[in-house]
Design goal:
The complex is a heterotetramer, with 2 copies of chain A and 2 copies of chain B.
Chain A: H1 11-22, E1 27-31, E2 34-38, E3 48-55, E4 72-78, H2 84-94, E5 100-105, H3 108-120, E6 125-130, H4 150-164, H5 168-181, E7 182-188, E8 208-211, E9 222-225, H6 229-243, E10 251-258, H7 264-280, E11 284-291, E12 301-308, H8 311-318, E13 321-322, E14 327-328
Parallel strand pairs in A: 3-4, 3-5, 5-6, 10-11
Antiparallel strand pairs in A: 1-2, 2-4, 7-8, 7-12, 8-9, 10-12, 13-14
Helix pairs in contact in A: 2-3, 4-5, 4-8, 6-7
Chain B: E1 3-4, H1 5-21, H2 23-33, H3 38-50, H4 61-75, H5 80-95, E2 100-101, H6 103-121, H7 131-143, H8 148-164, H9 189-209
Classes of the chains: A alpha/beta, B mainly alpha.
Bound molecules: adenosine-5'-diphosphate (2 copies) and magnesium ion (MG) (4 copies).
């Protein structure tokens, strides 16, 4: 294992220290329990938007803390959901009197820990669970679909709604609408190595890729020979489009995401192909996001996320945001 | 013949050692069908626990179990944290303020733990989770009438078998369920850790209670 | 070689297509010759700031095209400097009557190609050569120091100066001041694989790293055992600080850069260590940039860049910028 | 006995084939001490060249050489593009409007090419660059008095030796210079491509001029 770390035991804490140093104007980082909080929290009268999850997906979620997006993020150990006391601490630091919305990715651990926090919180707390990964069959025989790329879009859009003053019920309703309209899927060219494990989470041969991966180094649905970029993009986009389904005439946000180790040159290349495939289907890409925003450590690979937009979502997407990882309008 | 707060603390010390010893094994099991953190999560939780086992207020078994619950909930994370936390919380409630636990109290505590895990996680036997270890353990515990050590020993044996039974199962709960059929052929890490904990408790009880 | 590409021959062009699709409001991409141009070029009365270099360093340079930074970028083949006709095309598309400044990284190929373009251009053209890599001894026995991370800072600062209306001579003078005040060094944990080559540019054992690398997959100065993050950061920072030298009381911009494959969690961790080491030396970090901004394809590794700031540089750094990769104030 | 525009075009066709054949070798040489693109750069340039060798206006050797220069400048990139481009541009100027080149004109063209490379790149013999191949080639060419084929053949032999002489050198120009002492023990890719081009020209000239 080659990583720029001092000690697997302290990697999350050490990275948080660097984050604090890098963004003193935006963030206050607390270490026990670990919470990344918007520098000007609590914002009076605003619904607090709080998320969290295992570390190793940076910039998710800490990189999205700031004006127009999250009030706080709760970073768990690498690939491990945070504990309820982190969430409780975030709620108490951020509640400005309008309650808190917890954005939870659909994993058993995340759901249970946020649920426990919700039960214990003294503020008014609601939570929404995002489950946008079409690679997982949503059946009685699974823990349901995972929350993946759609999380970034949800956090931006509902963050903007809270910033403009929407109340907790409105934030929940908007979240449900976004969750109902967003679908994602990912693939891996290489595995990642969890620091406290030291060996790759799975083994892939030089000519294999894994389709339908999550963001925790879990193996995917299918192992297939590496194809061309066009084949890869279409292997992700087809199930996404057919799932909702997205149809001709739909206006969408296309989010082309790197799993961490795939460089921008490949990501742009894939993005161009995806735009073409959507144009071929008569789907209009109105907004786009390209970059490493929800990652699996150093994994090489990508995911695609498609969100069906309406006018309000577009307005909220375009609204000012000022966080370490997303910034515009300010 | 009963089990005091000090006995529970001793059993937890033993459990901590076992979790630390088996940390890598649990990581490997979770690497195969999950996200490779179960061993690390359990080690983190029990290491935190160890530093609190000297607490002055740990005057009854129930207080010890409650402290275990809150410690695990705030340090383990993942699915295992809230599930084991709930298990110990319910066990604590089940034993109340008693200064010593007899074998029935222990069996009642195990039953309460199982009920808590099921209430939180909604898994049933056959879903390839810790429930597959805990369910037979509870059944065995309530069918034995003897020393605490005997109850725990029966529970541990049954849990071990229950854990083994997860190998061929296709997971329907937790992270392993994403793998579908690919989850078959692997031991469930949470079932394994449940079996390990019960074995540690049983061994500790036998050590303490050999003379009684 | 596992990459998200269709064909090594068309990778640059295909990526440019994706870039154009991703940023229709910011960029106009031209393909023959390949030039990425600010959408509103030429800006009348403004000095055109133009850079370029081999591809594979994304977002450098195309990702820095836009208001407040570059007017155009000339992407060469992967790791190959662009040709003079690309530069000439960029100049003619961007010259708004105030001439053009060419920002050239110090590599023989880049210098010669930009020099040729400068000789052939009909507009008023000046060029500056950046050479901030302290890993290379600046002696008669080398082609001089390479241009690396400092390029990003130079392009931002001189881009802001041009945007506020500084003339060509002022832009040149400011560039020289920045170049005289900036130093960088990098290391690699893994090699990268050039698409048209198909095998790693160099081989590193599982416990080795390469210190003093450039950005083209060239081997570095020294191959050493992988150390801790603290050792790595100090191996880069010490020669940087001692070179200028940076001294107690100096105000600096600290730029912690990923070589492409190193994820943000490690980068923040390294950044935190670098901030601490600078604080220990009494050097004040006034501004920072953390992320993958000048990369070597999928290489894992990092570089550090330190720029000694003055008030004007701070003002220009803070000035609005709106490009695919850097954006604030708009 | 002279060399016409058509002969120059034929020589360039031969050179293109040689560059394409040796593409991987040149990449490998550059991978060792540079950035692994020299073979690809040369292939790209000569492939572009090939598509222009049918041009109707290629009526004199000088015009052909000028077209080669502009093509290489606009397609090769890197250090090699401007250097080879300058070489052909100076060679073109040196031969002027002549319809045929005799051996002196060829030697003059080679000398002009070398002067151009040195003017642009400032390298001297011993810096481990193409200058180490071209310099002895020019010297050999001007010392031979015979057919164009003989001149080019002598130049090619000398260039091959010159290229080999770069192996032990420590680079002082171009990308390889960043390696310092680590650049020793490797053949310089640009010197190798210079030797390959001259050998291709010589072979083409011998083929053409065998009867004369
Ligand atoms: N719904 C559930 N009910 C009971 N046990 C579960 C459930 N989901 C997961 N588990 C148990 O949790 C274990 C995984 O724990 P751990 O790896 O620590 O958390 P995570 O899955 O969040 O990474 C599984 O092996 C399984 O035994
Ligand atoms: N200053 C120079 N003078 C003469 N030849 C040079 C000089 N710098 C580099 N070269 C030649 O160029 C070759 C490298 O060409 P190439 O790999 O195509 O470009 P780059 O080095 O820009 O990647 C070297 O092997 C060397 O022979
Ligand atoms: Mg986990
Ligand atoms: Mg796990
Ligand atoms: Mg090159
Ligand atoms: Mg080269």
């Amino acid at each position: 294992m080659k990583k720029i770390i001092n000690d697997p035991e302290t990697v999350v804490q050490d990275a948080l220290r660097g984050m604090q140093a890098a963004h003193p104007d935006l963030l206050s980082v607390h270490y026990d329990p670990a919470v990344v909080v918007r520098a000007d929290a609590p914002v009076q009268g605003k619904v607090a938007i709080i998320s969290g999850g295992g570390s190793g997906h940076e910039p998710l979620h800490g990189g999205f803390v700031g004006r127009g997006m999250l009030d706080a993020a709760c970073p768990g150990a690498v690939f491990t959901s945070p504990t309820p006391d982190q969430v409780l601490d975030a709620v108490s630091r951020c509640d400005g009197g309008a309650g808190a919305l917890l954005i939870v990715k659909n994993y058993t651990g995340d759901v249970l820990n946020f649920e426990t926090a919700g039960e214990l919180a003294e503020s008014e707390v609601r939570s929404v669970v995002i489950d946008d990964d079409v690679a997982v069959k949503d059946s009685l025989y699974t823990a349901g679909r995972r929350g993946v790329g759609g999380t970034v879009l949800l956090e931006k859009i509902v963050g903007a709604a809270a910033e403009r003053g929407d109340d907790l019920a409105a934030c929940v309703a908007l979240s449900e609408r976004v969750i109902a309209s967003v679908r994602s899927m990912g693939l891996a060219l290489t595995s990642c190595t969890v620091p406290h494990v030291g060996s790759p989470s799975f083994e892939l041969a030089d000519d294999e890729m894994e389709i339908g991966i999550g963001i925790h180094g879990e193996p995917g649905r299918q192992r297939v020979p590496v194809g061309t970029a066009s084949e890869m993009v279409s292997a992700l986009l087809t199930p996404i489009v057919e799932d909702l389904p997205f149809e001709a005439g739909d206006r969408v946000l296309l989010f082309t995401n790197s799993m961490g180790g795939t460089p921008l040159i490949e990501l742009y290349l894939a993005h161009g192909i995806a735009e073409q495939l959507l144009a071929d289907r008569g789907i209009t890409v109105e907004r786009r996001l390209v970059g490493p925003y929800i990652t699996s450590l150093e994994m090489q690979g990508m995911s695609l996320t498609l969100l069906r937009l309406d006018d309000e979502m577009i307005e909220l997407w375009d609204a000012p945001v000022h966080t370490p990882a997303l910034r515009w309008g300010v | 013949m009963g089990c005091t707060a000090a006995d529970v603390v001793a059993a937890l010390r033993a459990a901590t050692a076992v979790v630390q010893e088996h940390r890598d094994e649990l990581v490997r099991l979770d690497q195969a069908i999950g996200d490779a953190d179960h061993g690390e999560n359990m080690k983190r939780g029990f290491t935190a626990l160890l530093s609190r086992l000297d607490g002055e207020d740990l005057t009854t078994p129930g207080k010890v179990l409650k402290m275990v619950a809150t410690t695990l909930i705030s340090t383990v994370g993942g699915a295992a944290g809230p599930l084991y936390g709930t298990a110990f919380l319910r066990a604590s409630a089940a034993v109340g303020d008693a200064a010593e636990l007899d074998c029935e109290a222990v069996a009642r505590a195990l039953q309460a733990a199982l009920d808590g895990v099921v209430a939180r996680g909604k898994a049933v036997v056959g879903d390839k989770t810790m429930v597959d270890a805990l369910t037979p353990a509870v059944a065995a515990a309530s069918s034995v009438n003897g020393s605490v050590a005997a109850v725990l020993s029966a529970a541990a044996d049954a849990a071990a078998e229950g854990a083994e039974s997860t190998v061929p199962m296709v997971a329907r709960k937790g992270r392993a369920s994403y793998l579908g059929e690919r989850s078959a052929g692997h031991l469930d890490p949470g079932a394994r850790s449940t079996a390990l904990l019960l074995r540690a408790f049983a061994d500790a009880a036998r050590g303490e209670g050999a003379a009684t």
